[in-house]
Amino acid sequence: MDYNELISNGQVVLNSKIDGDFEGFDDGKLFPLYNGQYWLQTKYKYWYHYSYMAKIMIYKYQNRYYLTKDGKDKFVEVKLINDVIKATIVNDFNGWSGDTLFELNNGQTWKQDEYDYDYNYSYRPDAIIYYDGYNHRILVEGKSVQVRQLK
Predict the structure, then answer these.
(1) CA distances from 38 to 18, 54, 140 (A)
(2) Is the CB of residue 134 less than 8 Å from the CB of residue 83?
(3) Which of 24, 49, 81 is the endpoint of a domain?
(4) Who is most buried in 16, 47, 105, 118, counting CB within 10 A?
(5) Residue-range definition of the domain harbouring residue 48
(6) Same-domain pairing of 67 and 97
């Protein structure tokens, strides 16, 4: 399927904006929307394009959903997810290094559950924890890593 087929035959089910930075498509990318919904990329496709509060459209076509960025002929398959926790990390954040603990302002503690390294300093950043269909992940400062809940 190409972009023209999608917009000609698909049905627009949502017109919204990304809540924050939009940085294109990547494997398992989470798209938080201004309306409070969260959509997760389900098929691998890479495309980099930066935009702040990007206008997007969600199309339904052949019982699948696709996200497009306004003004671009790119799209990616997505699914709506509801198992989402928004919180704030309660201390300095330095990224993750393999066994990082994430203490949240809601009293929960999550631990990194896969090896990955990412250095990124931030003071009390927002975090989004979501279930991708296989594992829980935490999204902080635009990057995510697999986690498991301790308490």
Answers:
(1) 9, 14, 15
(2) no
(3) 81
(4) 16
(5) 3-81
(6) no
Count the alpha carbons within 13 Å of 19 in the hemisphere toward its beta carbon.
Answer: 13
- According to DSSP, the residues that pair with 145 across neighbouring strands are 138
Q: How far is 57 from 67, CA to CA, in rounded Å?
A: 6
- The rounded distance, in Å, linking the Cα atoms of 137 and 122 is 19
89 and 132 belong to one structural domain: yes
pTM for this entry: 0.89
3-state secondary structure of 9: helix
Q: Report the domain count for the chain.
A: 2
Contact in structure between 93 and 46 (CB atoms under 8 Å): no
Are 9 and 71 found together in one domain?
yes
Which residue, 95, 101, 106, is CA-closest to 144?
Answer: 95
* pLDDT tens-digit map of 104-144: 999 999 999 999 999 989 999 999 999 998 999 999 988 89
Residue 90 and residue 140: Cα distance in Å, rounded?
13
Helix (H, G, I), strand (E, B) or coil at 5: helix
**Could you tell me if 10 and 61 are in contact, meaning their C-beta atoms sit under 8 angstroms apart?**
yes
